[in-house]
Specification:
Helices cover 0% and strands 54% of the residues. It is mainly beta and 112 residues long. The protein has one domain: Jelly Rolls, CATH 2.60.120. The strands form two sheets. A five-stranded antiparallel β-sheet has the order 1-2-9-4-7, with no helix packed on it. Strands 6-5-8-3-10 form a five-stranded antiparallel β-sheet, with no helix packed on it. It comes from Anoxybacterium hadale. This is Cupin domain-containing protein.
């Protein structure tokens, strides 16, 4: 058992990207912040499934070429091998919870 205080951690890119509260041994758990205009590059995972829950704002998530616009309280599950791209096209910050499982040290395949 352990407790982590989110305020003690930083987002990967200063004010955007993931802030991992847990990385392994069985899953990843992150708070992800998207200021207006920021995105995650298109990618997929061979083994891990990924889930996103929108805490604040609006985010566009493109899964296998189809755009889904999610807002506060909505959840999306992405299966392994499904390509996904996230972008904040709104004028407000989007804040999401993201989980990935089962944990893999390296399982992200970027799509050019």
């Amino acid at each position: 058992m352990y407790i982590i205080d989110e305020k003690d951690l930083e987002y990967r890119h200063g004010d955007s990207g993931p802030k991992y509260l847990m990385r392994g041994p069985r899953m990843n758990f992150a708070v992800v912040q998207f200021p207006p205009g920021t995105d995650f590059k298109a990618h997929y995972h061979n083994i891990m499934e990924e889930n996103f829950y929108v805490m604040e704002g609006v985010i566009d998530i493109v899964v296998d070429g189809k755009t889904h616009t999610l807002s506060r309280g909505q959840f999306i599950h992405v299966e392994p091998e499904e390509s996904h791209y996230l972008i904040n096209n709104s004028n407000e910050v989007a804040l999401l919870i993201a989980t990935l499982a089962p944990y893999q040290e390296s399982d992200k395949v970027e799509i050019s």
